[in-house]
Specification:
This protein is an alpha/beta fold. Helix content is about 25%, strand content about 25%. It has helices spanning about 1-30, 85-95, 115-125, 155-160, 195-210, 235-245, 330-335, and strands at about 55-60, 65, 70-80, 100-105, 135, 145, 150, 175-180, 180-185, 215-220, 250-255, 260, 265, 285, 290-300, 310-315, 320-325, 335-340. The chain is globular and about 90 Å long.
């Protein structure tokens, strides 16, 4: 009889523990309960290069050709945002970069992959001067729901209709966009802790680089290959991708909430909560203030042989803190970097 009593007690304790784990799962793992959206839900679809018609561009055999400002292709690159930019902030960026042809974002645009944060982003973005500009987006770890099963939020997938030229099981999150002088490659680093994704993505990346046809190659991924923040290194990404990505012209990442440049690797933070850098020696230049970058590539029709220029500015006052000139032969031997202070 005592044996059955012990079994019943342990079974009851186990059941109570399971209930507590289910109820307190989010709190234990630092994930807040989903806030209730009290405003009107917005329906919106971002302009992306996966669509048949993109404002300001026409699709040619050479890639998407800019029709509004054909003298150059200018891409505004934003780092982590975490829903911390308001409509006024986006309007300020629009005023500072009125010639921007596209906006690229390295991930963690939203603080959580939940309806509240989706609607918060839409409310601020759709009313701003940047709303009509095509977007090249990369999912960050905060766009993924971290419940019993990790997965990219369905709203993200419906918002961003990206090209389907990526590897199997990563369609729409890992992809590339072709312009006449630039192949912009996006890699979703969230599932790369699994070997099958890692090897498949590396193979796809090499093929995408080798078939770029003489274009500049710029890669965007959320988790950085090289980090100067203590405890934020990604040894698996470093060992797998460092050699391949070292052949590109530039690699943009986020996640570290600070600015770091060690060519071709550039880490941006536009509005994420600042995290002090611990290993500055890994970088050629660092900055803890929020920043944004602009990639500019003159058209081959207007200025043959002109370099790609990447300039980085403080978000607060628009002051340029870094500029990089890359010629078409790659950055290893011909990159001229000018650091401004």
């Amino acid at each position: 009889m005592r044996k059955w009593i012990k079994i019943a007690i342990w079974t009851l304790l186990l059941a109570v523990g399971v209930v507590i784990c289910v109820v307190r799962w989010q709190a234990w793992f630092g994930i807040p309960d989903e806030p209730v959206w009290t405003g009107d839900s917005l329906s919106f679809r971002f302009n992306t290069f996966g669509q048949d018609s993109v404002p300001g561009f026409v699709c040619t055999q050479e890639g998407w050709r800019d029709t509004l400002s054909p003298q150059s292709l200018d891409i505004l690159v934003l780092g982590d945002i975490h829903n911390r930019l308001s409509q006024a902030d986006y309007d300020t960026l629009s005023a500072r970069v009125p010639y921007a042809d596209a906006v690229a974002q390295v991930g963690d645009w939203m603080d959580r992959g939940q309806e509240y944060y989706h609607q918060l982003l839409l409310r601020e973005w759709t009313a701003s001067g940047l709303a009509g500009i095509p977007v090249i987006n990369c999912p960050g770890n905060h766009e993924y729901n971290k419940h019993l099963r990790k997965g990219l939020d369905v709203d993200w997938c419906s918002w961003f209709d990206h090209p389907d030229n990526g590897p199997v099981d990563q369609i729409g999150t890992t992809y590339y966009v072709d312009f006449p002088q630039l192949r912009f490659i996006v890699i979703d680093t969230n599932p790369l802790n699994r070997t099958v994704y890692l090897t498949r993505t590396l193979t796809w990346l090499r093929e995408a680089m080798n078939s770029a046809g003489g274009r500049y190659t710029v890669v965007m991924m959320h988790h950085p290959v090289i980090s100067n923040a203590k405890g934020r290194s990604n040894p698996l990404l470093y060992a797998t991708f460092r050699r391949a990505l070292g052949q590109t012209d530039a690699v943009f990442a986020g996640h570290d909430h600070s600015y770091m440049r060690r060519m071709p690797f550039i880490v941006l933070n536009t509005a994420g909560k600042n995290k002090p850098m611990k290993e500055r020696h890994k970088a050629e230049i660092t900055d803890e203030a929020p920043v944004y970058s602009i990639i500019s590539i003159p058209s081959a029709d207007t200025e043959a042989g002109a370099p790609m220029v990447i300039r980085t500015y403080h978000l607060s006052d628009g002051k340029m803190i870094d500029s990089i000139y890359v010629d078409h032969n790659g950055c290893d031997s011909t990159c001229i970097a000018t650091t401004l202070r």
